[in-house]
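Sorry to interrupt, but I need a hand with the structure work. Go ahead and set the record down below:
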Amino acid sequence: MTDKLSLRLVPDELSELVEPLLPVFTPRRQGGGIAPTDERAVFTAVVLGQAVRVSAAIRVDGS
């Protein structure tokens, strides 16, 4: 599921550009490990974190 904020931060075009750069999940033969996570959701979280960081830096600088 993709909500409005996700689409604004990471439009489909950007998601398509980034997708080939992300590692492919390969399950382990013996099982266990971490279940795969939606790559777009993780990338959106990274973009949001960077946007908040830049916004905070601009406020501190007064620019």
